């Protein structure tokens, strides 16, 4: 089947079926922008606006697409995507479902078929299948490493290699958008790749609490609820701080004890450290501290830039380093907002190819980035560093090679680079004793490397950054 109109006719037939299955708003958002490119034998090629768009289609509507294509084209139907070019760049071709979602093996749970103990169980088979609820894109390959998360990634890979035997539990904490969910799911995906026979489950603290209430008050299936969770080999609980209520925590305490005693891997994430978690039973808190607690911090400029570069490549677009550097300089809060800015830039460039990319980046970030009330400048950074290390400004700007002064000087350059918008390396160097841009760049790299290996040094930098950014609120 291969002529100039077959692909359009086939896709139109598919759309007529899909339109009857999904909601009108979903259809207009996710299917109207798709264009059919070709139909060769049984392979249909569709053009989508971006790889992000493809991820949504793959994640939410793959089953609908698969059934519809088989109905219209036949049992041998195959699907390939091509990403719509941005500013006349060559399109990127992506095979459908390039990264298959991990699956768990079927397991036996002692319950009647009509008494499914959890919404994560797939019914209809004698041995039930538990949906691991892992997103294939949240893997270690797509996780950019920097000083902000190096310890977490290292610990996560160790836990994945030896589940239940190294860091157990592994407690990952940090502010919103810093990659806690991505890291936790990456560990689960890595475990599934190495140990496919293990049953992995990702669940949020709020979902666990809802299931607990349902099991104890609505269905009265509390025994089945406990039995279900005690069957898990790797339990990932995201936002465990949402697991409120003494009854819910008491149930989880029993599940924790059973899994830990049997060498099962436990992974938790939270927006705060265990010591700062309020309204939690002390006996449960003490167990959360048994393993390793790892903090994810705000990414520095280098890590933000690498993240943007990596994501742009995944989207199949080429964006100049100058534009990516601008985004990395302007959006400093977290990975989530940084990724959002990039996706917004790509979307705008797709529909406005005539506009300059830097102009678009400036327009987008002006709407995304909140201007601070008190502007951080080089003078404020240097003053904060001097105050923290009890140095004079003369000491900081001198040519002294004393270790403390050299490190203070390097930290001042690093923070100036990461906290001050549109501040060039040459400007930073000129303001700290006439250093050239190569010296400033070397200092920034040195500080980033030391933060990943020296906990005390990392605390110095984080403390000074906190003192500076607290002035912005």
Give structural notes:
The chain is α/β, with parallel strands linked by helices. The chain folds into 4 domains: 6-95, DnaA, N-terminal domain (GMP Synthetase, Chain A, domain 3); 121-295, 3-Layer(aba) Sandwich (Rossmann fold), CATH 3.40.50.300; 301-368, Helicase, Ruva Protein, domain 3; 378-469, Orthogonal Bundle (Chromosomal Replication Initiator Protein Dnaa, Chain: A), CATH 1.10.1750. Helices cover 51% and strands 11% of the residues. It is built from 19 helices and 11 strands. A 5-stranded parallel sheet has the order 8-9-10-7-11, sandwiched between helices. A 4-stranded mixed sheet has the order 1-2-3-4. β2 (43-48), α3 and β3 form a beta-alpha-beta unit. α10 (301-315) packs across α12 (335-351) and α14 (378-389) runs antiparallel to α16. It is flat, with a radius of gyration of 26 Å. Residues 87-98 and 370-374 have low confidence and may be disordered.
User: What would the principal axes of the Cα set say about the shape?
Assistant: flat
Low-pLDDT runs of 5+ residues are 87-98, 370-374
Annotated CATH homologous superfamily of the largest domain: P-loop containing nucleotide triphosphate hydrolases
Q: How many strand elements?
A: 11
Fraction of residues in H or I helices: 40-55%
Strand content: 5-15%
The ordered string of helix (H) and strand (E) elements is HHEEHEEEEHEHEHHEHEHEHHHHHHHHHH
Corresponding CATH architecture of the largest domain: 3-Layer(aba) Sandwich
Number of helices: 19
Strand order across the largest sheet: 8-9-10-7-11
Structural class: alpha/beta
Mean pLDDT metric:
82
């Amino acid at each position: 089947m291969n002529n100039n109109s077959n692909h359009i006719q086939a896709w139109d037939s598919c759309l007529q079926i899909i339109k009857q299955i999904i909601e009108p708003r979903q259809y207009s958002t996710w299917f109207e922008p798709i264009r059919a490119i070709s139909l060769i034998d049984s392979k249909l090629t569709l053009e989508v606006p971006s790889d992000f768009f493809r991820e949504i289609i793959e994640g939410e509507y793959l089953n609908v697409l698969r059934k519809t294509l088989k109905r219209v084209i036949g049992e041998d139907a195959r699907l390939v995507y091509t990403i719509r070019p941005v500013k006349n760049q060559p399109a990127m071709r992506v095979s459908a479902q390039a990264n298959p979602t991990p699956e768990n093996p079927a397991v036996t749970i002692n319950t009647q078929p009509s008494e499914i103990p959890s919404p994560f169980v797939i019914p209809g088979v004698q041995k039930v299948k538990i949906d691991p609820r892992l997103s294939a894109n949240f893997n270690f390959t797509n996780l950019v490493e920097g000083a902000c998360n190096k310890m977490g990634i290292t610990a996560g890979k160790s836990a994945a290699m030896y589940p239940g035997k190294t860091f157990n539990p592994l407690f990952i904490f940090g502010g919103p958008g810093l990659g806690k969910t991505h890291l936790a799911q990456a560990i689960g995906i890595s475990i599934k790749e190495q140990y496919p026979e293990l049953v992995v489950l990702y669940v949020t603290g709020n979902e666990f609490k809802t299931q607990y209430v349902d099991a104890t008050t609505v269905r009265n299936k509390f025994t089945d609820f406990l039995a279900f969770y005690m069957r898990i080999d790797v339990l990932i609980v995201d936002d465990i701080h949402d697991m409120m209520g003494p009854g819910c925590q008491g149930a989880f305490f029993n599940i924790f004890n059973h899994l830990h005693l049997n060498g099962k891997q436990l992974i938790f994430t939270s927006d705060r450290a265990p010591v700062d978690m309020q309204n939690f039973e002390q006996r449960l808190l003490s167990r959360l501290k048994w393993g390793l607690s790892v903090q994810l911090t705000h990414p520095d400029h280098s890590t933000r830039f690498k993240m943007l570069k990596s994501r742009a490549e995944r989207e199949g677009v080429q964006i100049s380093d100058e534009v990516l550097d601008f985004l990395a300089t302007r959006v400093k809060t977290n990975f989530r907002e940084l990724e959002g800015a990039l996706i917004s830039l790509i979307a705008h460039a797709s529909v406005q190819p005539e506009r300059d990319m830097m102009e678009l980046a400036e327009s987008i970030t002006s709407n995304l980035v909140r201007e601070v009330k008190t502007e951080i400048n080089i003078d404020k950074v240097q003053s904060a560093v001097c105050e923290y290390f009890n140095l004079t400004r003369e000491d900081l700007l001198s040519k002294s090679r004393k270790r403390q002064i050299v490190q203070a000087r390097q930290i001042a350059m690093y923070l100036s680079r990461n906290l001050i918008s549109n501040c060039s390396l040459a400007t930073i160097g000129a303001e700290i004793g006439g250093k050239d841009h190569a010296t400033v760049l070397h200092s920034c790299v040195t500080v980033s490397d030391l933060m990943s290996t020296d906990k005390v040094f990392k605390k110095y930098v984080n403390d000074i950054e906190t003192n500076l950014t607290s002035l912005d609120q």
